[in-house]
Amino acid sequence: MSGRTDSVAGPAEAEEAERAEPAIRHEEDAVDTELHDEARRARWLATGTGVLLTLAGVAAALLRLTGPAPALVPAAYATGAAVCAAAALLGARGRTRRALWLLIAGTMIMALGDQFD
Asked: CA nearest 116: which of 55, 58, 64?
């Protein structure tokens, strides 16, 4: 009974390994597809929210600009809208975490402008 411990698998074992490998790849592909879908949804959500908040900030800045509000109010809305526009661009490029923080900052800037009114 002399045999090497590091011997190569026999033909039956090699065939079995080849049959098992595509199943593993199929599972990995499913996980990769799922992750890509989740990332795509996050990009679309960040971009859409950024565009929506940008439009809201620009509209609020224009409305406050025509009214009797102090000049600081429309400037705050416009600044918040610019920050949200930057967040939309980052979200479209896949930087969703940074886009989220910029969306929060832009909304806070617009809320601060509302406090000056």
From this structure: 64
Band (pLDDT 50/70/90 cuts) for residue 20 is: low
Residue 85 near residue 48, CB atoms below 8 Å: no
Number of Cβ atoms within 10 Å of the Cβ of 62: 13
Q: Taking the model in full, what pTM does it have?
A: 0.71
d(CA 105, CA 17): 53
d(CA 39, CA 47): 12
Region for residue 50 given its phi and psi (left: phi exceeds 0; alpha: psi -120 to 50; beta: otherwise): alpha
CA distance 4 to 37: 48
In angstroms, the CA 117 to CA 109 distance is 13
Contact 73, 117 (CB under 8 A): yes
